[in-house]
């Protein structure tokens, strides 16, 4: 059979007519990766970030996409398995050819994937508060650095309004984020005159479920004369048994307040919060924040959750801080691509500097021009009986991130600018 130019043209037209031109379709989309644990110990926190990422992508597509192209999400499940995060990241970048990846929760998962993004010169948007002590050209950190969460929270606990705490229990899951955050907090507390004898430090493995003996130790430590507070960096599904045991042993906020850095509305969903009223969480967003932007965000999520029949959210749709950070990060990346007129990593990095977005939390969110972190407000909320939070303290406006903590002596002289390769 002789193939002529005219017959090739006719075949191409027929393929387009019947929707068979996969190459043409591929050219009309920009792929983005979604890298979150949908199973394992971190699924309790991360699954909803996958869902809000898909909602945001759908919203951007409904508004015309980016550079006239629709975004196409490629979702993978690294299953709370830290080495698997690196494998899945490599798959997204080298096989699926995504333009950027939105994902990770724990710092150990972020540390696992970091070499992959740096070696391939690709982009990761990381949406969760973390310990700092890192700055990469290839990562945009849309969660809080320690000076945007941990330090203000402990300052609040030490203040008259926060109960004038003099002794501290640093309780966390045993991995890099809690240990590094507590190293910073120890140095901070020492600078405020708190003695080592007035600091108790305890760690439990991922997935730990028996907090009976630890709560008993906290009760004993707090009975030794000085006002005591607990700083919790427990992560994942261990928060459920921790808070249940807190209630079981009657450890009330008026006696020993707990401030958490990894517990929000979603983690409290499976807990009877009535015994926990008054305990605290420090974040840069709460669902209960009053602002027109937040009302719109909560409604958008509620409508999406019901339409997609998202388990747990059809009857009780909840939003939280990492969801907001995910939402902001994807929108900012889309704005930067539009500005750069390209998905090229270096061009997008340049275009990200100074990007702004109206955050649901009520403030204009700004990407720092140099250090790849958002300027973020800080809120401290008290747990309510319904699992929401009453904001009891907040900063006057967004706080600039300080990735290299001033309380770590070896950070002296380090620049808050990521090195280029």
Strand portion: 15-25%
Q: In which range does the helix fraction lie?
A: 25-40%
Count of helix runs: 12
Mean pLDDT, to the nearest integer, reads 91
What is the molecular shape?
A: globular
Q: How many structural domains in the coordinates?
A: 2
CATH class of the largest domain: Alpha Beta
- Distance, first to last CA: 54 Å
CATH architecture of the largest domain: 3-Layer(aba) Sandwich
As residue ranges, the low-confidence spans are 1-25
Q: Name the CATH superfamily classification of the largest domain.
A: Response regulator
**SSE topology string:** HHEHEHEHEEHEHEHEHEEHHHEEEEE
The main sheet orders its strands as 7-6-8-9-10-14-15
Beta-strand segment tally = 15
How is the CATH topology of the largest domain named?
Rossmann fold
Rg over alpha carbons: 23 Å
| Class by alpha and beta content | alpha/beta
Instruction: Summarize the main sheet.
Output: 7 strands, mixed
Which key phrases capture this entry?
disordered N terminus; five-stranded parallel sheet; alpha/beta; Rossmann fold; 421 residues
Report on the structure:
The chain has a 7-stranded mixed β-sheet with strand order 7-6-8-9-10-14-15, sandwiched between helices. Strands 2-1-3-4-5 form a 5-stranded parallel β-sheet, with helices on both faces. Strands 11-12-13 form a 3-stranded antiparallel β-sheet, covered by helices on one side. The chain has 421 residues and is α/β, with parallel strands linked by helices. Helix content is 37%, strand content 16%. Helix 4 packs parallel to helix 5 and helix 11 crosses helix 12. The protein is globular and about 70 Å long. Residues 1-25 have low confidence and may be disordered.
């Amino acid at each position: 059979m002789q193939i002529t130019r005219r017959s090739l043209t006719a075949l191409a037209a027929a393929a387009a007519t019947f929707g068979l031109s996969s190459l043409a379709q591929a050219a009309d989309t920009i792929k983005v990766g979604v890298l979150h644990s949908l199973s394992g110990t971190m699924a309790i926190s991360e699954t909803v970030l996958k869902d809000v990422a898909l909602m945001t992508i759908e919203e951007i597509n409904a508004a015309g996409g980016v550079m006239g192209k629709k975004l196409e999400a490629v979702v993978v499940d690294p299953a709370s398995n830290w080495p698997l995060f690196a494998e899945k990241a490599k798959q997204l970048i080298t096989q699926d050819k995504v333009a950027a990846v939105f994902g990770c929760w724990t710092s150990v998962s972020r540390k696992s994937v970091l070499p992959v993004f740096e070696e391939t010169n690709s982009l990761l948007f990381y949406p969760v508060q973390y310990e700092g002590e890192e700055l990469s050209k290839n990562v945009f950190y849309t969660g809080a650095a320690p000076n945007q969460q941990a330090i203000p929270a402990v300052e609040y606990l030490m203040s008259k309004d926060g109960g004038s705490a003099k002794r501290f229990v640093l309780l966390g899951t045993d991995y890099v984020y809690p240990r590094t955050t507590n190293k910073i907090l120890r140095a901070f507390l020492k600078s405020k005159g708190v003695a080592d004898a007035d600091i108790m430090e305890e760690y439990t493995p991922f997935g730990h479920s028996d907090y009976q003996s630890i709560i008993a130790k906290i009760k004993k430590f707090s009975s030794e004369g000085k006002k005591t507070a607990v700083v919790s960096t427990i992560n994942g599904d261990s928060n459920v048994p921790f808070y249940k045991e807190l209630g079981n042993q009657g450890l009330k906020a008026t006696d020993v307040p707990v401030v958490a850095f990894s517990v929000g509305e979603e983690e409290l969903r499976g807990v009877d919060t009535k015994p926990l009223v008054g305990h605290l969480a420090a974040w840069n967003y709460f669902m209960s924040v009053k602002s027109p932007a937040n009302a719109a965000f909560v409604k958008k999520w509620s409508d999406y959750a019901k339409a997609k029949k998202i388990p747990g959210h059809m009857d009780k749709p909840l939003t939280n801080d990492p969801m907001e950070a995910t939402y902001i990060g994807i929108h900012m990346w889309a704005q930067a691509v539009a500005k750069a007129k390209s998905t090229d990593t270096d061009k997008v990095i340049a275009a990200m500097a100074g990007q702004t977005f109206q955050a649901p939390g009520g403030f204009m969110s700004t990407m720092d021009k140099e250090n790849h972190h958002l300027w973020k407000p800080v809120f401290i909320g008290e747990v309510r009986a319904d699992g929401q939070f009453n904001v009891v303290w907040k900063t006057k406006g967004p706080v600039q991130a300080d990735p290299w903590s001033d309380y770590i002596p070896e950070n002296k002289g380090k620049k808050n600018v990521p090195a280029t390769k």
